[in-house]
Amino acid sequence: MALTNCNPKLAIVYASVTGNTEQLAEMLQESVLSQEFRSKLYRVEEFPLSELSSCDVVLIGTYTWGSGEIPEEMQELYQAIEKLDRKQLQTAVFGTGDSFFAEFCGAVDRFRDMLYVKTQLIATLKVELMPQPSDAIRCEKMVKLIKPRTS
Length: 151
Ligand SMILES: Cc1cc2nc3c(=O)[nH]c(=O)nc-3n(C[C@H](O)[C@H](O)[C@H](O)COP(=O)(O)O)c2cc1C
Hints:
The chain has a single domain (10-142), classed as Rossmann fold. The mean pLDDT is 94. Helix 1 crosses helix 5 (135-144). By secondary structure, it is an alpha/beta fold. The chain has helices spanning 20-34, 51-54, 75-84, 106-118, 135-144, and strands at 9-14, 38-43, 57-63, 90-97, 120-128. The relative contact order is 0.21. The longest helix is centred in the first third of the chain and has 15 residues, at 20-34. Strands 2-1-3-4-5 form a 5-stranded parallel sheet, sandwiched between helices. Bound molecules: flavin mononucleotide. Flavin mononucleotide is lined by residues 16-22, 63-68, 96-98, 101, 103-106, 129.
């Protein structure tokens, strides 16, 4: 099927140190591409913040650091979205964490609270450490929540 203007332009932006969140981001990218959306996968360090104004959808992936905190390399993205305050931007936040810690995937919760206010938050997804094949179904469910472009 040919791509049309109804296909939203999408970016998946993630941070990962040991590879768990990267795997989840790749799983999501597979789901997104199977829906024939135009999507690019970026490590956060490589993501041009100017894309936030032209994308229809941004899926944000983060591990959790410290005591439920957003990692340092995700701070700039967080602040840019907060400042942009673009309600028509569809967003979702996903991440991996370790339930050994008091705030499981706390960084996902912190992003969620901001995205809910500043953007059109469509979903959140938390995975315990390394993604399992069954998480592919959860990724598909998240991707199905993305709305087509209206213009
Ligand atoms: C110092 C340190 C602090 C962490 N703090 C938390 C935390 O508060 N909550 C949580 O859910 N996971 C926490 N984690 C676990 C990581 O978020 C988890 O291992 C994650 O899957 C790593 O993602 P990555 O493989 O993409 O780097 C912590 C890990 C380390 C090393």
